[in-house]
Design goal:
Elements (H helix, E strand, L loop, with lengths): L1 H15 L4 H6 L7 H4 L4 H7 L3 E13 L7 H7 L8 E16 L3 E5 H4 L4 E5 L5 E10 L4 E6 L22 E6 L7 E13 L8 E5 L11 E3 L5 E8 L10 E5 H11 L12 E5 L5 H4 L7 E6 L4 H5 L6 E5 L2 E2 L3 H9 L6 E8 L2 E8 L12 E2 L10 E4 L2 H6 L9 E5 L3 H5 L7 E5 L2 E2 L3 H8 L6 E8 L2 E8 L1
Antiparallel strand pairs: 1-2, 1-4, 2-3, 3-6, 4-5, 5-6, 7-8, 7-10, 8-9, 9-12, 10-11, 11-12, 13-14, 14-15, 15-16, 15-17, 17-18, 19-20, 20-21, 21-22, 22-23, 22-24, 24-25
């Protein structure tokens, strides 16, 4: 009996913490009666749940006629299309969640929920169905913005909170559509902040929570105790597909930048610094004269970039941006991505152990030299590839490249280039021993119809590959 009473009192204390700060200040004692213990999340859920929607998508995928010929062993003889190259279309259904962020029908969700979808249906909590269209899909952040036509009807929506104000231990609710069961609410706390190096996004910076998140919750809402959106539920850590109490949400401050871009032309342009950094490891701490291993160590500075103009040098360690801590290069990218263009940016850095502050302008990456986007054709090893000159804007679009000049593969989905396995982000270093410094140079070399044997040197992820082919 004593253990049961203690457990009830502890649960009541947790629920009491769900009250706004002003109310908590007036209630500093553990509840002493059954009436005081009858606290509930129900009023909060009733107010916020109508702003969370279910998303159903359809996409057409092509499948080999026989699974036998999809096997890699047989595909090498009969081709990737199966025997005779025969493929058949198949409709694939998937589900997820979304959050209404404006009363006129703007919805935020995950990119992976709607990517490749030919048909998107949004179902609100009251059962109404709306066809939706994609306004903006940003694969770098795994965020997408949809729009539905409400015919003038005003929808319930969630306001965005300042996710930087979250603290580990804060109570949160996760609302979504797990396993297609229908709208479900789970509770938990913020288990961690600034989780980086998680997932495959270009901007990996997450809120961690133990509120149960399962397949179908993607794109749903993570809300605070004032009913504001603090994050978009994105992924889980799991060994069997179910929740293990380790879920991750994209912070609302990043969501806000994508929503703003969708309202102003639908194109995201993020600030460029001209700086490239790496993580500070424990064995670097003494040489950098730091107390702990934190920050982003700048190892390359574009002489024409805003960082160079502000006075940042190679070897400087960025510790904070606009007063917000920077633990590693991923945090540096996140902080910069949430700064509007034209704004002043304050960098707190350490140089040889001495703290310094520099001011920098948030500038758009320049398109110099011009991209000169070209689809390569003809009898050559790069036929079918789309290539372009590397410039700061291209580097930003492709999530960072290992060099600042040359020619990069934008895509290679057909032709000989696809058969060779070229991928977006590959940098063409040389062809038959001749250095490639521009698309024009590459076109000129490939135009030689007399050449039959080709040697192509490609840089991928810092590793050089030599491709030999005879045509």
């Amino acid at each position: 009996m004593k253990k049961t009473k203690t457990k009830i009192m502890m649960m009541a204390l947790m629920l009491a913490l769900a009250l706004p700060a002003s109310a908590r200040a007036q209630q500093t004692q553990v509840p002493q009666s059954a009436q005081q213990m009858h606290l509930s999340f129900a009023p909060l859920v009733k107010r916020t749940a109508p702003a969370v929607v279910n998303i159903y998508t359809k996409r057409v995928v092509r499948q080999a006629v026989s699974p036998l010929f999809s096997d890699p062993f047989f595909s090498q003889f009969f081709g990737m299309g199966g025997f005779g190259g025969q493929m058949r279309p198949r409709v694939e259904n998937s589900l997820g969640s979304g959050v209404i962020v404006s009363p006129d029908g703007q919805i935020a969700t995950n990119t992976h929920v709607v990517k490749g979808a030919s048909e998107i249906t949004v179902v609100t909590s009251d059962g109404r169905e709306y066809p939706a269209r994609k306004v903006l899909v940003d694969e770098k952040t795994d965020l997408a913005v949809l729009r539905i036509d409400t015919k003038g009807r005003q929808l319930p929506f969630l306001k965005l909170a300042d996710s930087d104000a979250l603290q580990v231990g804060d109570l949160v609710l996760a609302i979504g559509n797990p396993f297609g069961l229908g709208q479900t609410v789970t509770s938990g706390i913020v288990s961690g902040l600034a989780r980086t190096s998680i997932g495959n996004n270009a901007y990996s910076y997450f809120i961690q929570t133990d509120a149960a998140i399962n397949p179908g919750n993607s794109g749903g809402a993570l809300i605070d105790m004032e009913g504001r959106l603090v994050g978009i539920n994105s992924m889980i850590f799991s060994k069997d597909g179910g929740s293990l109490g380790i879920g991750f949400a994209i912070p609302a401050n990043m969501v806000q930048t994508v929503i703003a871009a969708s309202r102003h032309g639908g194109r995201i342009v993020r600030p460029w610094t001209g700086l490239t950094g790496q993580a500070v490891t424990p064995d670097m701490v003494d040489s950098l004269k730091l107390g702990v291993a934190r920050g982003a160590l700048i190892n390359r500075v574009n002489p024409h970039g805003p960082g160079a103009k502000a006075g940042v040098h190679p070897g400087d360690v960025v510790l904070a941006i606009n007063g917000k801590p920077v633990q590693d290069p991923e945090a540096l990218k996140f902080r910069l991505a949430t700064v509007p263009l034209g704004a002043d940016v304050r960098l707190d850095i350490s140089r040889n152990g001495q703290p310094m502050t520099v001011m920098m302008k948030a500038e758009a990456p320049p398109e110099t030299p011009a991209r000169d986007e070209t689809t390569l054709k003809g009898r050559n090893p790069l036929s079918g590839a789309v290539v372009e000159n590397i410039n700061p804007a291209v580097t930003a679009d492709m999530g960072g490249l290992s060099q600042e000049a040359g020619v990069v593969v934008e895509k290679a989905e057909q032709g000989i280039a696809a058969q060779l396995g070229l991928s977006p982000g590959d940098i063409v270093v040389s062809v038959n021993g001749k250095k490639i410094d521009s698309v024009a140079t590459l076109r000129d070399i490939l135009s030689d119809r007399r050449t039959r044997r080709w040697q192509v040197q490609v840089l991928r992820g810092g590793q050089v590959m030599n491709l030999m082919i005879t045509l």
